[in-house]
Write a structure and sequence with these properties.
The complex is a heterodimer of chains A (about 425) and B (about 350). Chain A has about 425 residues and is mainly alpha-helical. Chain A has helices at about 1-40, 45-75, 80-115, 120-150, 170-175, 175-210, 210-245, 250-255, 275-280, 290-315, 320, 325-350, 370-405, 405-410; strands at about 155, 165, 260, 265-270, 355, 360. The model of chain B has no long low-confidence stretch (mean pLDDT about 95). Chain B has 12 helices and 4 strands; from the N terminus they run αααααββααααααββα. With about 350 residues, chain B is mainly α. Classes of the chains: A mainly alpha (about 425), B mainly alpha (about 350).
Chain lengths: ~425, ~350
Amino acid sequence: MLEALSRLQFAFTVAFHYLCVPASIGLILFTAIFETAHFATRKSIYKSLSNFWSEIFLVVYVVGIGSGLVMPIQFGTNWSKYSVFMGDVFGSPLAFEALMAFFIESTFAGIWLFKRNKIGAGLRLATVWLIAVGTTISAVWILTANAFMQHPVGYALAPDGSKVLLTDFGQLMTNPYLFWMFFHNHAAALLASSLIVLGISAYSIRRKGPLEGFKKSIGLAAGIGLVSAVALPAIGDPYGKYVASVQPLKASMILGRLVSGAGGGLAPDASSSASLQVDLHSLPELPNAALVRGSYLLMVVLGVLFIASLLLFVFRRRLLWESRFCQSLAIWLIPLGYLAILAGWVVTEAGRVPWIVYGLMSIRDALSAVPVASVVFSLCLMVLLYAILFAIAFSLLRKIIRKGPEEANNAAA
Amino acid sequence: MLQHDAAATLWYAILAVAWIAYVVQESYIVGSGMLHRFGYGAAKRRSIQLSSGLHYDGIEVWLIVAVGGTFAAFPPVFATILSSLYVPFFLVIVALILRAISIEFMYKGDTDAWRDRMSLLWSVSSFLVPLVLGVYFANVFGGLAVDSSGYRGDILELFGPVGLAGGFFFVASAAANGLAWISLTTVPDAEGKPMSKTAETAISCAALLGLIALFLGLNNKTKLFSGSALLAGAPVLWALPAAAVLAAGLQLAATAKGARASWRLASGVASAALAMATLFVAAFPRMVLSSVDPSYGIDAASGSSSQATLGVMTWVAAIFVPLVIAYQSWKYVHFAKDKNEEA
């Protein structure tokens, strides 16, 4: 019960937090590009676009930092045995993320959100780019921590086996798993954000007509989106081969080489290697092969849809202000982008069950010995809080999007 | 290269500084938040939201650094304290999230009802943050009911007399500092009916009394002072608690005499910083204090990470902590003249 509730709480809070992460990474980049265009050309349309996309960024960012606070706390509250076992290696990337990334993001986001109309063009430009750099540094550190959980390197077990000890920080930072995950995640974040910009622009054009600001946004988003959408399978292919070398079980599930066996368990099919057959019997808990395989296929199918749609939008941009069907398609691509990201996340994390740290610690050994009532309390509290956050964010986003950028409204008048 | 125990001591000090930086700056931010509804006019409220909104997010990261740094440098301490104080941690996080939402979105809605609801939320969440933080610190320094198999206490125990003294001090000190921050950084109030000098003096007085109650309660519960290794070894350190009380007294005097806001803020900030420094100095090297039996507690040296981890962290902190202090100080100075009128 304790394990199920703590897992559910972590999955729920991280999934909610992760709704905000890709959009923050991408939208601040769109903002920074339009701000740079304004700095270079002094055309007011770019300034109004920078302000508009950063208003949407603001809502996502605030919900993101709020839901982000919950994550590190849970390692101590719900996963304290994990914290003791892993703290020597896992804690410092989190501390460095705060020190190197969160401070830059938060200090300058404060300036951007509360003072951007009172500061000069140079400071405006520096501020948005610093926030954008901060989000990227943040991604590197959190993925450094996650990559260790996927593929531990640069450590030794303590003589009594009670914890891992850092032996080589350089190896931690050059973990190949980190390399593949970072590029795959960042491309996915840029793609999802491009789909958000495209969808919101298409929705606004349907409501207000083909305004210049949205045409410019569509041009940029279709370009960035297409490059990211093509990069994803290009990165994904060698990434998958690499995963097969360090997590053969996950790779077997992705490729469908593990099938449901007797009693709902897993069994390798005829083509699997002998080592897999041995592995399965020693595991404390079996992963859900159908879930991993299904999520992987969903991600691939959606990836193909994204490439096809973005090719259309890059080469036939006018369709987005002439065809209602294409407008609807662009709007629906927003949730589908998120679905693809969540599917990829399920492959990565459900694929390493039963390990919380691959090969070193199983999930059930990582729990805190806290009363079940405490976890019920916190889980209910978080569900209630996030429902409120979602409602507030949704109503604000709708208001911002319906109002549109200043320049666009002036042009329409 | 530092010896392991010396590195552990250094990290104890760095984390104490991070906690002090957070608590002290947060005091005037949450103080202004909880009081912004009381008697101020509309333009003044907007101005308070702008001046506190500019800084709150950057300040909050000091909390993440303090908590994340404890995870990295002292994993068993992090694991024991967070799993013992499970409910307070979730409460403070929820209060911080609601504060962020309300301060950022207060003026983003269309209606007066939206603004008023957000204003109420900002005020209530800004009250809860120092309340729960005060309870948290009073319990950490007043000892947790931990034995060899973990936490043995219950939730009501956390909110006992010493816990409530901590909450009371944090709330009163935040309110007193918040009042000074409001008059220092915002536009003059043309339409409102601000709090009387008597009421402001009473708040400063409450902060002074709360501080004394917290110190006495902690000593009574875990012999925080009388059992302190550092205070016994270097009696000159008794100057710290004395100075904390003195600074709170100075703020009270400055408020009663109607002195400038900068004096009231400086003395209140000094008092909060010295009070926190006192707690960390008196507790050293004890990081988890057990109220069941001191032998179940965790010390800095025995609870710390490996030399390799502390070494990397020391290098990173040596570069980035000064850098962060530099750009956050620049931000305070750059916007100091700005009275936060609506743009």
